[in-house]
Structures are given as structure tokens and as C-alpha cells.
Amino acid sequence: MSIKKIQLLTQDVSEKIAAGEVVDRPYCAVKELIENSIDAEATRITIDIKDRGVELIKITDNGWGMPKEDLEICTLRHATSKIIQIDDLEKIDTMGFRGEALAAISRVSKTEIKTKQTDSDLGYSLITEGGSKPVIKPTGMSNGTQIIIKDLFYNTPARKKFLKSKQSEYSSIISNVENIALAHPTIGFKLIIDDKEKLNLHQIDTHLDRIKSIFKDELAENLIPLDLDNGTIKIHGFISSPTYINKKRNNYFFFVNNRIVISKLIIAAVNNAYSEHLVKGRYPIAFIFAELKGEFFDINVHPRKIDVKFVNEQAIFTSIRQATRLTLQNAHALSLPSENARNNIADIEKIDKIKKTNNTPQDKNNFFANFKTLHNIAPTTKLQNTRMLSTYNKEFSQATKNFDFSEKTPHLPSSPSSTQPKSYQKFSGEINNINIIGRLPTKYILAYNSKNDFILIDQHAAHERINYEQLKNDFLNKQIEIQGLLIPEIVTLNSGVLEIAEANLEKFEKFGFLIEKFGNDSLKITAVPSIIEKGHEKSSFLEMLSEINPEVDIIKNKEIIDKIIMTACKNSVKAGQKLSIAEMDHLIKNLFKCKNPYHCPHGRPTIITMTQTEIDKKFSRIL
What is the pLDDT of residues 497-522, one digit of tens each? Predict the structure, then answer.
């Protein structure tokens, strides 16, 4: 093997590498350009996208505009009006500041910038291709700036090759526009994709109004206002009622000084506040807007400014966790132990898992060390106009997928033999020998067999297994039985989720759902699989929709198929539902027609037995 000499990269190569760190997908370019418009104090921003953003990204705003001398250098690397000296990094109050966005985007596209200031009679345009020397000339236009990006990644084919499907790229663009709009309710946003209007968010006054305008189903009335100001960090926002817990772990929207960020620390703090009341696999919903002096956090730790590092992580963790707890307590939503009752060591251990060491300057640590007791917790209010949250923010999902939010919740055993008492064995007798005694008032069928073995059957788990195998068999054999709805179900969705649903209507039909577009932001369910019980049509569809990954073909991926079918089976016989002896007998016989009658689709046991000998031992009749 020959040893190659070290040599400097050419300017062209190094600049394209740097561009790839800032802009690796179209939504990154959209995000950076919108942030420039926000910094220019625009009150209206229009985003026009074609062919995933590869053919066209056009951002038009009514902000300040740029003078000719700024336009001449705006596409150069590190050209910025936001910082001058190193100390300015500790007091950043703008969205952009490093002078990377326009430079990076112009290196991998054909770029045109048109801009005009309010006090100028004439505007100017800039045209550059792949970072070439820009051509600037006068142009007529209204006040503000318009940036037109064409042929994105035309000169970096490797980057273009790894773009995702249209559905996935559009979903990412929509989610990012929504996230930015959440932080800036006083700005109007319009998003047009392939000549179709996907978002039209008008200027409004409050974050709550913006939440209502984006998330269109049962969410708003289940949010609790959160508010605190302890002298160091100021927070306001909304958290979900403990009775409204979502299965998606990426329903966290955290903003630091109006910039959406990813923070495992904040996620851990919120989940810790809910920890004693979370079922495994369920997560709260949170919109948290934090205001913090620039010297106490660093947003410059990621090329796209999506991650954040805090000077004193323990202070931030404790503040947000305590605020969330006290908000829940004051709302009388649940009964939580007082903060004083909890061991401080647990807090330190939690922080240690997130960060082993803290090398921040001592003087800044001291500034946090004396933070005051939280106060100003908002009183209980119920928010109107029910809205349901479902979003596909891939950055959040990627950052949190390996994080354990439920360390206090025991994992369900994959099989009963590993963790159950030895006296509880899976049923091994003949189905015809089972004699039903009755049913416990809650959830279990009581029976015995010819050997006088005691048998306990979980009616809900049993019915889930029956429905799961039936629907899966019908799906694989293309024989799903459907039932029409006399009154169609109308489902209203936010733009990002609607995009995913519309792209998968034919696939839903393969699972037995007949769905049509209904208006601008809704779908109409006209038929469902006959296995779904009346009253659960809408919830079953939403459960299945939540399992769809826009980057995976759900018809080809066995794991996704299993997840979707399992969600359709959740509306089986409920744990507390009363059954007659005949219904119990029918349930048991159908259970033992299954390939795996001993576990529900999630791995829980459906049936356990205790032999006559084991019962005698319990009563000390035998040794």
C-alpha cells in the first residue's frame, strides 16, 4: 500500500464539503433561508417548492432587503452582519450569525437573489452558479428579498443521489416550516408545494393560537399552560394532560430564544416529571419556549444550529422538571410526590447519564447555583378547539430514538417462562376439556380442565391475538373483509401528516380502509376492516397512520406490516368488558385456532395455568 502525501484541498472542494455540512437535504436550505427572512424582520414569508426542492426553492419576504454593497458579498463564506468579534457569540439574538447559509447554498445550486430596501427606489439582483463570481444588476421589485434556488445539488451528484422520496422530503420541509412558525406566531407563512398550497398560516398574536392553527385534532383542550421565571431562565408553553399521552416520542417542541432545538436534557427533564405516571411506550406532548441569556448556552455546536449546549445543565434540567411537575400539581391533573420528597442523588445520577463531566467556567456555574424557587405557575385552564398532535420531525426522532425515557417502567417479558413464578405455566391441555367457571370483575376468564388445573385467560390479550392473526392472514391472502360506514368518519390532520396519509391511500386500501380526500385538510373514511368494532374506526386509522414511516414501503416491510396490523387489533375486547359464558367459550375456541395462542401480538401471555398439585402446595396439603 502506497502512502499518499498530505496536501491542501482546493478551495472548490473544501467549500463543497463545508456546504454539505450545512445543506445536506432541501429542507435544510429552506430552514436557513426562512431564518434569514426572520432576521430581516419580515412579517410575511412565502415558500414555493417544486420536485422535492431540487427543481426550485423560492423564498419571498417583505423584510428589510439588502443594499447593493451587502448583496455583493452575501454569498461569500463567513460574510455576516450579526457578529463582529468573538464576544458577540455570547449575546446572539438572531437566527443566523455565521455567514454560512447563502454561501453553502449558492455553492451547490444555481442561485438568484433579488432585494430592495424600503427607502430605495431601485432593487438589485444577484446571479451565481455553483459559487461562480456573482453578476449584479438593477431590477424592479417590491420591498423585501426573494431568493430563487434552482437545480439544487446539480454539481454534487453524490448528495443528490441520496435524497429521499418526494413524500419524505416534503414531510421534512412541512415539519420544519411548522416548527419555525410555532416560534414566530406574529409572522405569516405560506407554503406551496408543486403548485398546491400546503400551509397558509396568518399573522396571529400568541403561541397558543399558532398551535391551534397547525394541529387540527384533539390536542388544544388537553394542554396545560406552563409558566415560570426564576431569574435565570424564563419559560412559557404548554404540556399535555397526563390523560392525553401520545405513543410518539418526538412530540416535543423546544425553543431557546425562539429557535427550535434538539435537547436530550430537556426531553429527560419533561419525562422525569411524568415518570411515575407514564405507561411504557407512551410519552407526553410539550411545547416549551425558553428565554435565556446568550452567555448561558451555545447554539454554535452544530453546523445547522439544531443542537444546543447549556453552561449549567443541572440547573436547566431541574428548572424544567420542577416547572413541569408543579404545573401538573397545580392543575390537579395528577397527584405527584413533592419535590422535597425526592432524593437529590437521583437528579445528579440522571444528569450524569446525560453528561459525565462539566467543564464550564466556574463563574458562570455560580450564576446558576443560586437560582430561585420556581414560581408563577399558571392556573388550571382547559383549552378549547380540540386538536390532536401527530408530527414527523425526523431530527427529533433521530436524536431521541436511543434515549430511555421510562427507566422506572418494567419491560414486558418476551415469554412467560423467564420471569413468571414457576407455578404459572402456559396452558398445554386440550381445548375441549376447558370448563368455564366465570369471570373476575376486571379482565380475566376463570376456568379449569379435566385434570383440575386452574386456568386464567386474559380476555383482551386473547382477543388481540385472534384479531391480529385473522387480519394478517387476510392481508397476506388479499381477502380482507370490509364494512361500509353509514356515516363516514371525517379526520382532520395537520399538513405534514396529511401529506403522508394522502401518499398512502392506496396502501391503506390494502388493509381494508377506503379513504377519500375531503376538503383542504381532511380525509373521509367510508369503509374499514370488518374486524374493527363500531366506534373505533377513526382511532384505528390514526393509530395505523402513526406507524407509517414515509421512508419505508409499508407493503414490503414485514416489521411495519406487523406494527400496523397490531394497531388495528387494539380495539379488541377490552379488559373490563362483560362477556357471557357463550361469548367466553367462543373466544377461547377462536384463541386456540391461532398459530400462537399463548401470547398477544405484543408478547404478553394470554393464558396461564396452575396445576392441582401446585394449588395443594399453596394450601400446605402436600409438601
Answer: 888 888 888 888 887 889 999 988 88
CA-wise closest residue to 285 among 321, 257, 249: 249
Q: Which residue has the cell 436511543?
A: 402
Give the pLDDT band of residue 287 (cuts 50, 70, 90).
very high
Cell 467543564 -> residue: 359
The yes-or-no verdict on residue 341 having pLDDT over 90 is: no
For every residue of 318-379, which 3-state class applies, written as one string? HHHHHHHHHHHHHCCCCCCCCHHHCCHHHHHHHHHHHCCCCCCCHHHHHHHHCCCCCCCCCC
User: Each residue of 72-97: b (16+ CB within 10 Å) or e?
Assistant: eebbebeebeebeeeeebeebebbbb
Look at strands 110-116 and 144-150 and give their pairing: antiparallel
Q: Determine phi and psi for 482, rounding to 5 degrees.
A: -115, 160
Cell numbers 423546544 label which residue? 254
Number of separate helices (H) and strands (E) present in the chain: 20, 22
Distance CA 53, CA 55 (A): 6
**Per-residue pLDDT, 592:** 87
At residue 174, the 3 state secondary structure works out as: helix
With b for 16 or more beta-carbon neighbours within 10 A and e for fewer, the 515-531 pattern comes to beeeeebebebbbbbeb
Find out whether 145 and 66 touch, Cβ atoms under 8 Å. yes
Q: How confident is the model at residue 546 (pLDDT cuts 50, 70, 90)?
A: confident
Q: Using CA atoms, how far apart are residues 135 and 72, in angstroms rounded to an integer?
A: 9
Helix (H, G, I), strand (E, B) or coil at 277: helix
What is the C-alpha to C-alpha distance for residues 106 and 572, in angstroms, rounded to an integer? 55
Rounded Cα–Cα distance for residues 43 and 178 (Å): 16
Tell me the pLDDT tens digit for each residue of 254-270. Answer: 998 888 888 888 888 88
- pTM for this entry: 0.62
Q: What angle do CA 278, 284, 290 make, to 5 degrees?
A: 130
Residue 576: what pLDDT?
63
| CA neighbor of 429 nearest in space, from 457, 465, 403, 401 | 457
**What grid cell was written down for 166?**
418526494
Q: What is the DSSP string of 32-80?
A: HHHHHHHHTT-SEEEEEEEGGGTSEEEEEE-S----HHHHTTTTSTT--
The segment with the largest mean pLDDT, out of 176-185, 277-286, 301-310, 524-533, is 176-185
